[in-house]
Design goal:
It contains five helices and seven strands, in the order ββααβααββββα. The chain is an alpha+beta fold. The strands form two sheets. Strands 4-5-6-7 form a four-stranded antiparallel beta sheet.
């Protein structure tokens, strides 16, 4: 089964008692579709990500990412020029899906059904030999232009369809 990039944000509490809300800082981790389904189902049932059963490996990866990112960040959220030599002592982490993703999922009639649809690919070739590849997956359309290296545009499927019709 193909892995998905799961974007998340977090709230961090250090052992000193200081708490910093990092919901504007998005991190990403690759997870299986099954784990993604568990997270989406849990979040839509108003459960926090760390309380969802069966995703302890995902929580471990997310925690590892936060600890790594925290070494490159000052407590006020600004970036450091050099990483801390030793990681800070963290007493609590809370994970969240980004607000835009939560709103997108809430609007869907059945978000799990969207995940189970097959991936669709389409490539449109230009006269000069370059191309644009469209990939529809998980309710989103990914657009890649062969002339733009390392650039991918991602748009909601409904919005994409409304733009072309």
């Amino acid at each position: 089964m193909e892995d998905l990039n799961f974007n998340y944000c977090y709230k961090i509490t250090y052992e000193s008692g200081e708490t910093y809300d990092r919901r504007r800082n998005e991190l990403s981790v690759e997870i299986s579709k099954e784990d993604y389904k568990k997270i989406i189902t849990g979040v839509l049932q108003e459960r926090s990500i760390d309380q969802i059963e069966g995703i302890s490996d995902v929580i471990d990866k997310m925690t590892e990412n936060v600890e790594f990112a925290d070494r490159f960040m000052n407590k006020n959220g600004s970036l450091r020029k050099t990483p801390l030599k030793k990681k800070r002592a963290i007493s609590k982490l809370e994970f969240f899906i980004p607000e835009y993703e939560y709103r997108r999922l809430k609007k869907m009639k059945n978000p799990i059904e969207t995940l189970e649809r097959p991936v669709e690919h389409m490539t449109v070739y230009r006269n000069d030999g370059s191309s644009v590849t469209l990939t529809a997956e998980n309710g989103r359309v990914s657009i890649v232009d062969s002339r733009e290296k390392n650039v991918r545009h991602i748009i909601e499927a409904d919005h994409f369809i409304s733009k072309i019709l």
